[in-house]
Sequence to fold (235 residues):
Amino acid sequence: MRIETLYADEDIVIVNKPTGLLSVGDGINAALPDILEREFGPIWVVHRLDKETSGAIAFARTPEAHRELSLQFELHHVQKHYHALVIGLPTWNNFSVNAALRNDADRHHRTVIDEHGKPAITHLRVLQRLRNTSQSYALIEAQPETGRTHQIRVHLRAVGHPIVADVLYGDGQPLLLSQLKRNYRATGDAAERPLMGRVALHAYTLSIKHPTTEEDLTITAPYPKDFAASLKQLK
Fold:
């Protein structure tokens, strides 16, 4: 599997994580650090993205860089901007969700809003409103101040706009070309392949301070094929 490197030096490496890869190994399935170590040598995990989420993720290449970057995340000095394709048309252009979260709250290991949970704040901004004959969608930018498990997914559901194809917090239905084009005709007997068959969430930018040089870095991760194709068809 090809991993797109967005930035790399002797201290850190930032890549565009493909969907379907774990950020941390579980001893059974292939994980992103295992793949990166073949090219870059020892890798230290700094933060995580959900398995289905694509986009910018940083790793340390030295223990010193790991300590410094981990501290930046702990103190919320890192800025992250995610792009999400959601169901429905928001009535607002900008909206902030301040709702505490409790993770692993049921047998499906979902995160829920709970006033006794950990503080969680997400700032939302509408980038595009996308209409078609059967359903409406929007492209949302989400900037989390905190890094709770499934935070963006839960907060978007809370405001009535779950992420496309989210099984845990939405209807789980994939985005199909046949839904968007009235005259669509499938070819052959094969089942239609979804435009978007996973949680439509992408870590678009990551802003950190370099652990050694203290340079401010903002790294942008291009959309993967499924995200780009879905937006193209919705437009």
